[in-house]
Protein: ROK family protein
Organism: Pedobacter paludis
Amino acid sequence: MHEHVILGADIGGSHITAALVDVKAGVLVPESSNREKIDSKGSALEIIHSWCRVITKTLNGLPHSGRVAIAMPGPFDYEKGMSYMKGMDKYDALYGMNVREMMLAELGQMVSEIHFINDAGCFLQGELAHGKASAYDKVMGFTLGTGFGSAKGVSGKATDADYWRYPFMGGICENFFSSRWFTSRYSEYSGLDAPNVKQLIEAAELGSPMLQLFDEFSMNFGIFLSQIYKKETFDCIVLGGNISNAWPLFLPQLRYYLSIRSVAAPVYISTYGESAALIGAACSIC
């Protein structure tokens, strides 16, 4: 009776957000959303318990199908439900474990199945269905947060692009387009212990010299985008993730750096924010 109501969850490096999604309408069920901070450096049991607590809270008292779709960062075996995140400043304790089995055991009978989908793919799928990207045939989507997620969208279908490990400036993209880069560069510029990215954004908005961080980020990101644009010309770019919320600090510069490199694709900030990943995850299994 409620097969069209699927729980969508978005797991980030420091939080989990969950809500029931009406996949027929492509919207969140009113008053079903929950978000909590997660200690991603905790033990495996602590992490699983925290995730399941939020899912249980979301499901309690509301009609649903018993199906759960989780937008999960990689490296992760999405089919088998096993985590391979290690040395990425998040969820090391889950390395090599079957996350699906652990969660099903804790959630019990209220959940019949759990699906894992690449988080950037979920984010872009939601944008392709309901955001500005829906007007374009070939789209690149990137999530900027604790990690660097990427997805390709072709004719309305999103798939993982796996650019987090793409070689870039002597390292990989994950090293340049995630929160760790911001905090590390802050320490190098200032000689002070780095706060979290949220505090950096707040300081920059008050006129801090750390505005140069965002200009450097824009230049690096523009170089990367121009490199992949030459390989696979895309029609537009969509950005999501917590760092994208600071778009006034970097988007004008990014657009400038793209224009001087003849990248014609427009850049949009996510229309639906975190909701895009929840809707995209749920819709991907219906």
About this structure: The two ends are 14 Å apart (CA to CA).
